[in-house]
Write a structure and sequence with these properties.
This protein is an alpha+beta fold. It is built from one helix and eight strands. Helices cover about 30% and strands about 45% of the residues.
Length: about 130
């Protein structure tokens, strides 16, 4: 009887460890699937009067996002895209070395909307589409 209980405990432990491994790996799989679905180059303009100009980012097949904003103090940033088309990224301004974040979403028609927020300044909206 003790041997049967030990085997049952061992099987339960293996199942629990397997579930944890699968669950922890899901975000990587989701990012890869999102990368495949949204891969390409996107671009557009920031809101009028913001002082920010055009922007562009590329999503690779692994779900990594890399881009730039045309302005003196923000250059490159990087981030990730999720399966629902939402994305986040961050970087640092070039002159003042202030951190900034970029968030947004790609809609099913490949239009993009989002915001860029530099620490200590107002957030600026942007929009565009897949090129």
């Amino acid at each position: 009887m003790k041997q049967k209980r030990s085997v049952s405990m061992a099987v339960a432990l293996v199942l629990i460890i397997g579930a944890v491994v699968v669950m922890s790996g899901c975000s990587g799989v989701n990012n890869k699937l999102a990368g495949i679905a949204y891969a390409g180059t996107y671009g557009g303009e920031c809101e009028d009067g913001s002082g920010l100009g055009s922007w562009e980012f590329t999503i690779d097949s692994s779900g990594r996002l890399n881009g730039w904003v045309k302005i003196a103090y923000i250059e490159n940033y990087s981030g990730i895209i999720k399966a629902d088309g939402s994305f986040t990224g961050n970087g640092q301004t070039t002159i003042l070395k202030q951190p900034f974040t970029i968030t947004g979403k790609i809609a099913s028609d490949n239009t993009v909307t989002g915001k860029i927020a530099v620490q200590g300044l107002n957030a600026v909206s942007f929009s565009g589409s897949k090129k």
